[in-house]
TrEMBL record:
<dbReference type="InterPro" id="IPR018976">
    <property type="entry name" value="Imelysin-like"/>
</dbReference>
<dbReference type="GO" id="GO:0030313">
    <property type="term" value="C:cell envelope"/>
</dbReference>
<feature type="signal peptide">
    <location>
        <begin position="1"/>
        <end position="25"/>
    </location>
</feature>
<dbReference type="InterPro" id="IPR034984">
    <property type="entry name" value="Imelysin-like_IPPA"/>
</dbReference>
<dbReference type="InterPro" id="IPR038352">
    <property type="entry name" value="Imelysin_sf"/>
</dbReference>
<protein>
    <submittedName>
        <fullName>Iron-regulated protein A</fullName>
    </submittedName>
</protein>
<keyword id="KW-0732">Signal</keyword>
<dbReference type="Pfam" id="PF09375">
    <property type="entry name" value="Peptidase_M75"/>
</dbReference>
<feature type="domain" description="Imelysin-like">
    <location>
        <begin position="51"/>
        <end position="319"/>
    </location>
</feature>
Length: 343
């Protein structure tokens, strides 16, 4: 039985009921429905599909060269979802389990080394592996195993091979659970759609549900400017290119671009009308980011290269005011507190 298909059918039923009431629904409820059905559900579904493909690929051939395409596809899908750090993604620290970054204390390589040296049998039991340190799980643990010279020298059948397979399977299971929790009949998608009704114990109004989604839009862009760009920028005297997200796999710039593209899609989906000013700025951000042609952000160590990267961050920050004008004001919402604020 395909649980994902059943879940989608359940959510479709809830959405049908919601749409039947659309004549009475206000612009805030309509915006929530657009985001749930047009942005969030496709994102969680794609991530589940791509991590399942990565899992299958890893079971067939665990070596780094063979897995890189499937790994990148799964990471791409995560970048379309990572800004929605609410509901089942936020619960039980699943977002950190998927993407343990920034790893300020270098816990990932330490945890992986300890696991390999101990030949930890958890890799042979999915239930047991789900309880190992989050530093040994998710996309960044896989990045070390597939791209870091200290970990890549393994063959099919080695313990490290089994570790890679365990990480990939665990990631797939986590993604499948998130997709199910978003799409089942009484899942998080339905909770958002039912905001302000007698059936909702979570959100007392459409405005509260929409504010939650709007906060994800703002926070996602802020995290890209402050974390994905700000961390490798460091200071003028001491740039920190090795602090860039996923630099080992050459994804630092790609992740910035994909995160902005995801925010752009969310903005367009949420907006009651075409968010012209927002699109002008975010499209400029994307053009400037593509022009960097610097996969690892190594150019932050060069004064001229640093300036170009700083401009991308500044333009992302500028988009926040445009979003408030194009989306927040017309819909009557502003960004609230998010658990990732201040990280």
């Amino acid at each position: 039985m395909n649980h994902s298909t059943l879940s989608l059918k359940g959510l479709a039923l809830a959405c049908t009921i919601f749409v039947a009431q659309a004549a009475q629904a206000g612009p805030q409820a309509q915006a929530v429905e657009r985001v749930v059905m047009g942005h969030a559900i496709p994102a969680v579904t794609l991530f589940s599909e791509q991590t399942k493909a990565l899992d299958i690929a890893a079971q067939n051939e665990c070596t780094s060269t063979a897995l890189i395409p499937a790994y990148n596809a799964a990471f791409d899908a995560w970048m379309g979802l990572q800004h929605l750090n609410i509901g089942p993604i936020e619960a039980d620290a699943r977002s950190l389990t998927i993407a343990f970054w920034p790893d300020k204390k270098g816990m990932i390589p330490k945890s992986l080394k300890a696991q390999i040296e101990a030949q930890d049998s958890a890799v042979f039991d999915a239930g047991e592996f789900a309880h190992v340190s989050i530093a040994s799980r998710g996309l960044f643990a896989l990045e070390f195993m597939l791209f870091d010279d200290e970990f890549t020298a393994y063959d099919q059948g080695d313990y490290s091979c089994h570790l890679v397979q365990a990480i990939a399977h665990d990631l797939s299971q986590t993604a499948a659970y998130i997709a199910s929790e978003w799409t089942r009949e009484d899942g998080y998608g339905t909770v958002l759609l039912n905001a302000g009704t007698a059936d909702s114990a979570r959100y007392q109004s459409e405005a509260e549900a929409l504010q939650t989604l709007y906060t994800m839009l703002i926070t996602g862009l802020e995290n890209t400017a402050v974390q994905r760009i700000g961390r490798p920028l460091g200071s003028f005297e001491k740039p920190r290119p090795k602090r860039a997200e996923a630099y080992r796999s050459g994804r630092a710039l790609r992740n910035i671009i994909l995160s902005v593209q995801a925010a752009r899609d969310l903005a367009v989906t949420m907006a009651p009308d075409t968010p012209t000013e927002t699109l002008d700025i975010l499209d400029d951000v994307l053009a400037k980011a593509h022009a960097l042609d610097d996969p690892t952000l190594a150019s932050v160590a060069d004064p001229f290269g640093r300036l170009k990267v700083e401009i991308v961050a500044q333009r992302i920050e500028a988009s926040l005011g445009a979003i408030a004008n194009d989306i927040g004001a017309p819909l009557g919402v502003s960004a609230g507190f998010n658990a990732s604020d201040g990280d």
